[in-house]
Amino acid sequence: MEEAIFTYVPMLVMPFYGDQLKNARIVENKRIGKLVNHKPVLIKEELKTAISEIVNNPKYKENIKKLAQFIKDVPMTGLETSVWWTEYVIRNKGAKQLKNLAADLPLYQYYLLDVVGFLIFTAVLLITVLTLFIRKIVRYLKRSQVTSRYNDKEKKHQ
After folding, report:
1. Count of CB atoms within 10 A of residue 60's CB?
2. Which of 67, 4, 83 lies closest to 31 in space, CA to CA?
3. pLDDT in tens, 26-40
């Protein structure tokens, strides 16, 4: 797509897999090309119509020129940018300030395994405490029911 944009060539896009359909829709929405769905039997007329529309409609060429000018309007080219950053690293003796601090972390910290472990431990502890608490309450309620029945029986016998 980049080559077509930089050379002002409207596109006829036929997506097959992956992100190609998304890119084809972008091409069609920006009116810099036409989307043609591939089918087991591609209709010749459909393809002819799409090609003639792209070739004969000047809007496609105008839109792609505008987009190319927008993309090309940058302070430095890609090569100039890479040269500048290479010189920057040389000037700053390796540019240690640009090094990602995560490179020095142990893997368990990088993947937050210590945090995950703590959260799992806390969840298990909370569930255990709640289970024990609920069991105590159930036992207490059962005892109070047994005691109240026993007291009711004694009152009847008296």
Report:
1. 22
2. 67
3. 999 999 999 998 776
